[in-house]
Amino acid sequence: MAKVKVAVNGYGTIGKRVADAVALQDDMEVIGISKTKPNFEAQVAALKGYDIYVPETSKEAFAKAGLKVAGTIEEMIEKADIVVDCTPGKIGVTNKALYEKAGVKAIWQGGESKDVCPISFNAEANYDQAYGADFVRVVSCNTTGLCRAIFPLDQKYGVEKVRVTIVRRAGDPGDIKTGPIDALVLDPVKLPSHHGPDVKTIMPHINITSAAIKAPTTFMHLHVLNIKLKKDCTADDVKKLFQSRPRIKLIDGGISSTAEIIEFGRDLGRSRNDMWESCVFKDSVSIDDGELYFFQAIHQESDVVPENVDAIRSMMKLEMDNLKSIEKTNKAMGIGL
Amino acid sequence: MAKVKVAVNGYGTIGKRVADAVALQDDMEVIGISKTKPNFEAQVAALKGYDIYVPETSKEAFAKAGLKVAGTIEEMIEKADIVVDCTPGKIGVTNKALYEKAGVKAIWQGGESKDVCPISFNAEANYDQAYGADFVRVVSCNTTGLCRAIFPLDQKYGVEKVRVTIVRRAGDPGDIKTGPIDALVLDPVKLPSHHGPDVKTIMPHINITSAAIKAPTTFMHLHVLNIKLKKDCTADDVKKLFQSRPRIKLIDGGISSTAEIIEFGRDLGRSRNDMWESCVFKDSVSIDDGELYFFQAIHQESDVVPENVDAIRSMMKLEMDNLKSIEKTNKAMGIGL
């Protein structure tokens, strides 16, 4: 069977990872990536052998930098079966007309509004909804992390109420422009934050509220979860449930910080030290006064990457069973090792 | 020929990297690593298949954590031809009697005083001095970075005077105990700092002074160099000279920070995002009023790692020619790619 032709529009934090993850699969291939500036990321894209497509106005700059250009972004889109749009948040929506004109399917990221298309996506919770669809939005890193925890809990015990406090990393490690350097920023002041309610784009029946704070760190987001379940269970039951999920990793080994989780990822030899799984701190899982509590850390740069691969598989009808797609993606990427 | 048996005593930031680098060589092997706590680093060591040796008093904790122990640290040392001591600074010297008693060769790191043994080491500058030696100290990350730049400049143009300002990363990425969070710390107040003069343990004739400041960052150290050369040359001459060296990487691609260099390392697929080379900012290399100026970034976690491999090769008489050893080490580790 011919491989599905995937174009990655926008080769930044998420785009470069999606390209590498797609390249590892045997049922899809990267036919090109787009870049606007001939910076070090473009140099590495060339080293990896990706065809680089650029805006007409960038051609001269790429030539000057000695980087070969395969064509314009429009030309890339025409060659693709599906485009993964990883352009910065709120820019992606402006590309929609381009995709519609070319008659290609498209995936947006969680930085876009839920209104960019009718279907928001999480591989474990609603893979079926995206089956054969033309347009899908993979929800944000935080929403992805929340869905991965809430979905199995809801299936097994029923979820009555979720309260989550999200302490967000303020910027990514390679980002030298974003602050704060030294402050905790209410994000936003008026409650709730959009993060928890965004879960409803995947699971509309979940009663959830969230508060968010930005902290001066780059490694990961941290969630403090409080969940009221409908049926009784023990902390050990929840640990076993989480252990059985394909994209939750229970963290122990003396680790009590996001910094050490990333160090763990480096030691494991993960590509870019990525922690694609939700990282639940094993010893934090506890039941107090009948309610479940735990901490989980979410790697903002990478946790949505395997979700994009599964979304492609669902939209292109490569696999009907979500757990089979997840297993295939995980195996190719080394998730769970 | 039988491979040289290397024991790595201390499996932290440097030790785990030295173990991985030794394991990549075809003329030496890791016969064991030592660890005092069964933390995530020990878990990964076990995953990688290293034999783990522990203090007698730690055996119970390792058993409890389900980690297999191969024996005591003393037993590991007896099996080795050479020990790379990567225990914390000032602890290494206390192990010297142990190595002498077992009759094994040993390498210490730059965190130890230069008085731990008569020979300090840099692969490019004084490989010959370590040839067949029993005890060698690989100089610190900063001194290594300075030697790599000063040695070829001195060979080609003669160095009359070096002035360096070192802005140090305060802690490593996985370190959650070291500060400052928000301050620039004079390190120390009284000039010069030990960094520049430590170069004299390798090249005694170099006239050098240094000032150091600690900054709240974890990625890399940054050197601001001012060098008065004896013979005239242009900035392009220096760039070409640096380009020709095996462990200097000229950095461009729009990069103006240590954060972006590490991001570059992640994108390149480097193990633990390590930048083993001195990273000279290409566009910073300049001549002003007859003196050379440039910035270089030094990856404190990894730049000494290939130096340790070359030190083993010299001490064990595996290779007489330093450039051949460097080339062999570089090729096995992927340095220069």
Automatic annotation (TrEMBL), chains A, B:
EC numbers on record: 1.2.1.59
Major location (coarse): cytoplasm
Compartment(s): Cytoplasm
Reaction equations catalysed: D-glyceraldehyde 3-phosphate + phosphate + NADP(+) = (2R)-3-phospho-glyceroyl phosphate + NADPH + H(+); D-glyceraldehyde 3-phosphate + phosphate + NAD(+) = (2R)-3-phospho-glyceroyl phosphate + NADH + H(+)
Annotated D-glyceraldehyde 3-phosphate binding sites: S140, C141, N142, H195, G196
Transferase recorded as keyword: no
Enzyme class: oxidoreductase
Pathway(s) this gene product operates in, as recorded in its UniProt entry: Carbohydrate degradation; glycolysis; pyruvate from D-glyceraldehyde 3-phosphate: step 1/5
GO CC terms in record: cytoplasm
Annotated ranges, domain Glyceraldehyde 3-phosphate dehydrogenase NAD(P) binding: 4-141
InterPro entries, alphabetized: DapB_N, GlycerAld/Erythrose_P_DH, GlycerAld_3-P_DH_AS, GlycerAld_3-P_DH_cat, GlycerAld_3-P_DH_NAD(P)-bd, Glyceraldehyde-3-P_DH_2_arc, NAD(P)-bd_dom_sf
Catalytic-site annotation from UniProt: C141
CDD domains: GAPDH_II_C, GAPDH_II_N
GO molecular function, one term: 4-hydroxy-tetrahydrodipicolinate reductase
GO biological process: glycolytic process; lysine biosynthetic process via diaminopimelate
Keyword annotations: Cytoplasm, Glycolysis, NAD, NADP, Oxidoreductase
UniProt binding sites for NAD(+): T13, I14, G111, R169, Q300
Pfam families referenced in this protein's UniProt entry, alphabetically: DapB_N, Gp_dh_C
Description of how the protein assembles with itself and partners: Homotetramer.
Entries under NCBIfam families matching the protein: GAPDH-II_archae (TIGR01546), PRK04207.1 (NF003251)
Family of this protein: Belongs to the glyceraldehyde-3-phosphate dehydrogenase family.
Entries under HAMAP family matching the protein: G3P_dehdrog_arch
Protein name in the entry: Glyceraldehyde-3-phosphate dehydrogenase
Gene expressing this chain: gap
